[in-house]
Amino acid sequence: MSFLEMENVSVGFGLEGFRTEVLRDASLSVEENEFIAVIGFSGSGKSTLVSMLTGLLRPDKGVIKLKGKEITRPGPHLGIVFQNYSLLPWLSVYGNIELAAKKVFPEYSKAQRKEHIERYIEMVSLTPARDKKPGELSGGMRQRVSLARTLCMQPEVLIMDEPLSALDALTRANLQDELVRIWEEDKRTVVMITNDVDEAVLLADRIVPLTMGPAATLAESFPVTLPRPRDRTSLNTNPEFKKLRNEIIHFMTAMNKEAKMLRVDRGLSMPDVKPFDFTAA
Amino acid sequence: MKFKILKALDVAGLQVFDPVVRLICGENPPEQFRKILLFIGIPIITFLIFIGIWTYLAPRHTTKAGEVPTPGVVKNAADGIWVFHVRENQKAEDFLLEGPAREKALAGVQARIAELTPLASAARTKLGELETASKSQIDQQVGPLQEKYNALRKQTRADEKAREEALIAQADSLPIGDAKARDAFLAKVSEHEVKSGTEKQALKDFKSTIDAAYADKFPEMESVRIQYNAYEEELQYLSKRLDYLTEGNQSVKISEGQSELVDLQSAFLTAEGGKATLKAAEKVLKQEESIARIAESSYSRPWTFPRQIVRSVACVFVGFFIGSAIAIPLGVLCGISRVFMAALTPLIALFKPVSPIVWLPIVFIIVGGFISDPETAFVHPAFLSSAITVALCSLWPTLVNTALGVASVEKDHINVARVLRLGFFSRLFKIVLPSALPLIFAGLRISLGVGWMVLIAAELLCSSEGIGKFVWDMFNNGSSQTFAQMFVVVFVVGVIGLLLDRIMIVLQRSVSFDGAPTAI
Ligand SMILES: Nc1ncnc2c1ncn2[C@@H]1O[C@H](COP(=O)(O)OP(=O)(O)OP(=O)(O)O)[C@@H](O)[C@H]1O
Ligand SMILES: [Mg+2]
Question: Distances in Å between the alpha carbon of B41 and those of B6, B7, B35?
């Protein structure tokens, strides 16, 4: 049995009768210390998937298990990095991380805790912004604070919802390297949501595409066999990388087309009317 | 430094003075001048226009309490209030002075009296002279007029009598039963009455011109009279001070009492016979008691307006704290629990619109039930009633805003709490309350404003010492002097309300994390 296991999970929103199913029969299994990337289009249900993996949302059908135990509620062992950071705006960078650290490691002494927090601030290179409020930070910095907060809880699984999507290309590349460094530094199981195929290939051991919504599901995964450490500059010319990337992009675009075709089929038929030219009369 | 000041101004909502600071720092002067002109100049001009309109309109409306006071009169009234306050404080201080300090103060007072007395008597003579002069002038002017008037009155009376006699004579010869002749006579009588009426009116008009001439005084006399009154007033005050520095002084009284006590004690020592000894002993004890009483006594200061202001502000804060202490916890509970909210909604809806005028008598009676003797009680019941009324009327905005703030905590923040598995109280104090704080403070700010308005009415109604009572006393006095003092109150209440609001803005902004701008 795998470390994190999701079996035939379905979930939807809305009241009976108006219910839209977001995920249907989605299954996923993640091994310990595996780095999984889930890619999907906007609105396909990625954040919903994350909510379920972290126990913030209960599935309508199916079960999600961590180490064989069903996940019924959120907790610090299921570390989530929210898509919209979810930092508390009245606390400083330090304060935000401290809140989590205090709760997760109540046994730490004051000095220990301080050291712990500062280590994680250092890890995401935010030491100069230590006492700033989230409102005074850039999007990328907030993202890093959010990451540091989750990392400092030392969760069993790290689940990140598009952690880098709000960043510009340069910062993004930087943080990708950082992520790999952090992951390699203290290994853990990671599920990362992304909408960037290159990023997925660069970081993950396995890439799982999420099909188009509604009623999306997780498709067959693509294993990434590229050896680590992966160097982004040389990767661009690596034939294996190119092949994998193209395969995934093909898969995604084909899926997109298929979905569009389906949507056209279900489209409303328009009445055949022409404008009447009153000026001619 | 500069940016610190600018930031402080911004937090206090005083961005208006931003260009002044920048100008002092020499930053782009023309631009700053333009801004100062725009944001400081225009408000000042508006205010001046307001003062102008007031000055123009006020004397045009005369009331029972005299003319509506002009800004100048109001200013004088404000000065008068202040002088009264300072003098009362001085007297209270004098009462407690002892030793060389007392003697020094005494010397000062005596010197001032010596200085003022000749001035006052000079003013009095001058006033007397002017009065006789003006009287003789008026007599000169009015004398002929009066004679004319007397003649006219005599003439009119004679005319009227003559007409009346003529009519009587005519009536004598009127044939009986002749309707036509009698109608004609009736017309004549009516004509006579109309004529007498117009004559009387003419007389009256003439008389009023004479009265006006009497009232027409020397303008010079008026200023001398004011000067004289001022001297007299100060002299009176100084003589009061003199009293408090000598016979009325606490230390003087005590030393007098003590010397008396020494006499009594020696009398007691040498007293013979049972009855006399007992009496002497009683006398000694009595004297000791009275000395102790004097030592404890203090000058009974009247409630001057500045002291009433301080008390009003204290009262509004007491009420505001009572109100907040009720409103915030209730609001939090309402925000957390839909059931609690549903339970409280009818009560909130029912009590929110109730006016302070209704609350006050009810509260007054209830509070009176708990405090039997107002003089010895820890708080005066009128003060407590006003405070509770303020609380009852001002807690609603805080309550509603707190409930709203707590209920609308962002879902993301709640998710953080869920991930961290925070318990109820840490969730409340670490997530819910901080995120609701800006809204709570917005509510508190409205509450304090409402409370301040309500307070004046409450004090007025239950005559709790404070601004409201001052207004009520002034209203009952009904002189033009007190009328002007009521105008002073308007400005005082306005300025204090403004300051309270500013304080709340600063607090509100210091807890707001989203950089919410302040309303004016
Ligand atoms: N609370 C909700 N109530 C109703 N519908 C919801 C709710 N949350 C999500 N949805 C719907 O579920 C679908 C998936 O939403 P989700 O947030 O998971 O998308 P996503 O893949 O994360 O998109 P993005 O990449 O833009 O973040 C959307 O169509 C959305 O309308
Ligand atoms: Mg999402």
Answer: 20, 22, 9
Q: Give the Cα separation of B42 and B5 in Å (integer).
A: 23
The CB-based long-range contact list for B139-145 (8 Å cut-off, 24+ gap) reads B141/B213, B142/B210, B142/B213, B142/B214, B145/B206, B145/B209, B145/B210, B145/B213
| β-strand pairing of A78-81 with A157-161 | parallel
Query: Where is B24: in which H helix or E strand?
Result: helix B18-24
Which DSSP string do the residues of B169-186 spell out, in sequence order?
Answer: HHHHTPPTT-HHHHHHHH
CB contact under 8 A, B513 and A133: yes
Average pLDDT over residues A215-231: 84
Is any Cβ of chain A less than 8 angstroms from the Cβ of B510?
Answer: no
> Is residue A126 within 8 Å of A144, Cβ to Cβ?
yes
Helix (H) or strand (E) holding B320: helix B305-336
Q: Chain A: residue nearest B516 by CA?
A: A135
- Whether B434 and A88 lie within 8 Å, measured CB to CB: yes
Same domain, B352 and B496: yes
Same domain? For B45 and B106 the reply is: no
* Cβ distance of B422 and A103 shorter than 8 Å: yes
Report the residue count for chain A. Answer: 281
How many CB atoms neighbour CB B513 within 10 A?
16
CA-to-CA separations, B68 to A229, B61, B76, in angstroms, rounded: 90, 6, 14
Of B426, B430, B513, nearest to A89 by CB-CB distance is B513
- By C-alpha distance, which of B169, B455, B437, B457 is closest to A88? B437
- Structural contact between residues B61 and B213, judged by C-beta atoms closer than 8 angstroms: no
Parse chain A into domains and list their residue ranges. 1-77+189-281
Query: In B307-333, which positions are buried (b, 16+ CB within 10 angstroms) versus exposed (e)?
Result: bbbebbbebbbbbbebbbeebbebbbb
Are residue B157 and residue B44 in the same domain, yes or no?
A: no
- The answer as to whether B293 is a domain residue is no
Q: Within this chain, do residues B332 and B190 fall inside the same structural domain, yes or no? A: no
Choosing from A22, A39, A52 the residue with most ligand 1 atoms within 8 A of its CB, the one to mutate for a pocket test is: A22
**Residue A263, SS3?**
helix
Q: Looking at the structure, tell me whether residues B31 and B115 fall in a common domain.
A: no
Yes or no: say if B78 and B488 are a contact pair by the CB < 8 Å rule: yes
Beta carbons of A79 and A118 less than 8 angstroms apart: no
Joined tokens for residue B3:
């940016």
Record the pTM.
0.79
Residue B314 lies in a domain: yes
CATH of region A1-77+189-281, choose from 2.30.33.40, 3.40.630.30, 1.10.10.10, 3.40.50.300: 3.40.50.300
Residues A66-93: what's their mean pLDDT?
A: 91
- Residue A268: the pLDDT is 59
- Residue whose CA is closest, atom 30 of ligand 1? A43
Mean pLDDT for B172-185 is: 81
How many CA atoms within 13 Å lie on the side-chain side of B153? 11
Question: Would B193 be classed as within a structural domain?
Answer: yes
Longest dimension (CA), chain A: 90
pLDDT for B520 equals 45
| DSSP tag of A214 | S
Domain of residue B39: give its range: 2-60
* B438 and B309 housed in the same domain: yes
B286 lies in a domain?
no
Residues 6+ apart with CB under 8 A from B399: B326, B327, B328, B330, B331, B334, B348, B443
Residues B251-270 pLDDT 10s: 888 888 889 889 888 888 88
Structure tokens at B366: 């209830």
Residues found in chain B: 520
The residues placing their C-beta within 5 Å of ligand 2, an ion, are A 46-47, 83
Residue B149, pLDDT > 80, answer: yes
Number of domains in chain B: 3
